[in-house]
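Section handout 9: paired folding examples.
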Amino acid sequence: MSTHDALLKQVSITATAGNLVARFEIDGTIPGSGAYVVGLVAASPDYSSQRRLGIEFMNGEAVSFFSFNHSLSAEENYDIKGVEHSGNVITGNFPASAIHGLSKGHIMTAFSEADGRDFQSGVPVAEAL
């Protein structure tokens, strides 16, 4: 995958009844070969408490939908039916509990990975929580 494929253009997250809806708009389409991950890093201001929320694709198909709590070293996997993707938009419907315990003053950025390597990090996220 070249660095010109599937760059995150815009990322947002909104709260609905019990869910966090993360929307990732990419420049291009989801790569049809290899691994590609989009996600969010949510952290306390001092980064002492962190959560990673992610959606992993393999050969263009969503295969994993998860959150990882760094404080507890625990990963939680969700039903892949919570992921929708069409063209250049990927949407993940995470449970609100995925960021439970983070204060209102948290920090949130987006990231992407390609074939196990960091692709982008620190991408701004428009929040409506």
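Moving on to protein 2 of 2.
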Amino acid sequence: MAGLDLSPIAAVVEDLVLLDVVRISRPAAGEPVFNDETGEYVWPEDEVVYEGKGAVQAAGTPGGVTSLPVPNLPWSDETRSRYRALTPLSAPTAERDMLITVVQVHPKGDLALIGRQWRAQDPSVAGTLGVVRITGLDQVQQTREVP
């Protein structure tokens, strides 16, 4: 018995939904290195795993505080931002904690997306009848700081 072929639908969804350019990268390991030319510490370059067609969308309602504040903690709790990345099935599966960045938006797209980063919460979803690869994301609230 032949299975259901969703490749024609996948092509239509890619053309209608995957309008922006996203980058999936593996954060570099290691500490910042001193650059003699600039006199500043520089983080190692991330390893780019994929750069191509994609989309980032809010997933459901806006997130909230994930835990109750505790007066003895030296930090304030961050909110959890529920987003999802959509990429073609041909794109590699994002691993947990990989970074997803929007590097280009389509004409008349939301320019506020450019440069924003999200962290993959889990490996990308894989299934029997998928038409796009879906990755659950949490927006990066803070960037790395120089020590």
